[in-house]
Design brief:
This is DHA2 family efflux MFS transporter permease subunit. It is a multi-pass membrane protein. One of its GO terms (molecular function) is transmembrane transporter activity. Helix content is 76%, strand content 0%. The chain is built from 22 helices and no strands. Helix 2 runs antiparallel to helix 10, helix 4 runs antiparallel to helix 20 and helix 8 packs antiparallel against helix 16. The protein is globular and about 65 Å long.
């Protein structure tokens, strides 16, 4: 078939789905939800994996960091690959890699092998994510695109909360391996639905910025590895040199994006749109919060309260319920209210809830004293995830929507990578301060700490660590104050 005939055929397929694009969205959401759940599903299983695989806290955090890093680094280029070779084809390829890597994760017997398997999971996720946003942008008419993106954004927010809950139930009932095995049937269903429902959209040529890929990938790896391993290696000279080299490469990447006259990975002209820039700052904060808050909270619940993985995960239910319950009404508000009002309320409510949680995170507190602030955080999050996604690309011309989607996804993932690395450093350092030796083994395991004094010190270490996500909520609140009124037709009606 000639390229023209191929474009015509795929154009017809797209046109057929244009009349009812929602089934396509739901088909994509299944796979997208699954890969985002895996960003946080490990957090509640952390104590069990530490015990079963004889691992340290830092090593188990690397199980999540490796996934996030492999997810974040290629995501800028995989969007362009989808444009060149077909978004549907790249999505299905990524889903296949992700599902097979999930089987590998569940079959591993050492923490090192688990980290390697998670890298391949992350690569599969990186192939999938940009395709979902790009397909939505192309198949939905402008009048429905905001609602579709609100669903997409809400899916991200709900998945970040459902991950630990699902992880707790599976770890408690079947074993930590099943937090990965569960992806196999879900992946098969997602593959069949995408194969049948997602149209093969027309492709077009791209020049690929491989130098940009190398610079950004090397910068992210050096920064993440240096930050996460810094405390454990006593901030040795070579660790500081890695961090400095990562910063230097990041600067070189930005300079190269400015100088590249062909097709840069990150068109810097995107950031001339204030709302796009602010949305990227907000979603970076949310990415870091989603990656960071679960580790200290789940360790506290299981080591101090003596909760099972399921009981620990249930502490997050109020947050998940409020996020899900409010997703639709908040989506409607996004088209009528100034984004500064919507996201400002969201970050403020989440910050208040988180500060209450920090205050009450002590041995012996009643469940409701944790559930109430978690619910408040969930209310706030509902006003952040979907509206931020809907606002990010709202003012951009359609020709830049694909590039904007890739940058937005990459920014969220960069925030997640750095959040996971930073929380590992904080937990390690605070445990070393209050309970020398606990960061390696022992008190960080799955069993409840029997000594009340030790339990109190462990709680303090986890409280101190949770100041990181609290600070990121505060940064996000400041950032969203810079939103301007959207320029799209029909705003405010």
């Amino acid at each position: 078939m000639t390229q023209g005939a191929s474009a015509s055929a795929t154009g017809q397929a797209a046109a057929q789905d244009q009349s009812s694009p929602w089934p396509v969205l739901w088909a994509l959401v299944i796979g997208f939800f699954m890969i985002l759940v895996d960003l946080t599903i490990v957090t509640v299983a952390t104590p069990t994996i530490i015990e079963d695989l004889d691992a340290s806290v830092n090593e188990v955090v690397w199980v999540t960091s490796a996934y996030m890093l492999a997810y974040a680094v290629p995501v800028l280029i995989t969007g362009r690959l989808g444009d060149r070779y077909g978004s549907k084809r790249l999505y299905l390829a990524g889903l296949t890699v992700f599902t097979l890597a999930s089987l590998w994760c569940g079959l591993t017997t050492t923490v090192e092998a688990l980290i390697v398997a998670r890298i391949f999971q992350g690569l599969g996720a990186s192939l999938m994510t940009p395709q979902t946003m790009a397909i939505i942008t192309r198949i939905f008419p402008p009048a429905q695109r905001g609602s579709a993106m609100a669903v997409w954004g809400a899916t991200a927010g709900v998945a970040m909360v459902v991950g630990p809950i699902l992880g707790g139930v599976l770890t408690d009932g079947l074993g930590w391996e099943w937090i990965f095995f569960v992806n196999i049937p879900v992946g098969l269903v997602a593959f069949v639905m995408a194969w049948r429902r997602v149209p093969a959209l027309p492709t077009h040529a791209h020049s690929f910025d491989w130098l940009g890929v190398v610079l950004s990938g090397a910068a992210m790896f050096l920064l993440c590895f240096g930050i996460q391993e810094g405390h454990e290696k006593d901030w040795a000279g070579w660790i500081l040199a890695m961090i400095a080299a990562g910063i230097a490469l990041l600067v070189a990447f930005v300079v190269w994006q400015r100088l590249n006259s062909a097709e840069p990975l990150v068109p810097l002209s995107l950031f001339k749109d204030r709302n796009f820039s602010v949305s990227n700052a907000a979603i970076a904060c949310m990415g870091s919060i989603g990656a960071a808050f679960g580790f200290p909270l789940m360790l506290y619940a299981q080591a101090v309260r003596g909760d099972s993985p399921t009981e620990a995960a249930l502490l997050l239910v109020p947050m998940a319920v409020m996020s899900i319950f409010l997703a639709q009404p908040v989506g409607r508000l996004t088209d009528r209210l100034h984004p500064r009002q919507v996201m400002g309320f969201g970050f403020a409510a989440s910050l208040v809830g988180f500060l209450i949680l920090l205050w009450r995170l002590q041995p012996g507190v009643a469940v409701w004293e944790i559930a109430v602030p978690m619910g408040i955080v969930g209310i706030g999050n509902a006003f952040i995830w979907a509206p931020t996604a809907a606002t990010a690309n709202r003012n951009l011309p359609l020709r830049l929507a694909g590039a904007g989607s890739g940058v937005y996804n990459a920014t969220r993932q960069v925030g997640s990578v750095l959040g996971a690395a930073a929380i590992a450093v904080l937990m390690d350092s605070r445990l070393a301060h209050y309970l020398p030796g606990a960061a390696t083994h022992g008190e960080a395991g799955a069993a409840q700490i029997p000594d009340p004094h030790v339990a109190e010190l462990f709680s303090k270490a986890m409280q101190d660590s949770l100041w990181l996500p609290a600070a990121m909520y505060a940064v996000g609140l400041v950032a969203v104050m810079f939103y301007e009124k959207p320029r799209h037709e029909g705003f405010g009606h």
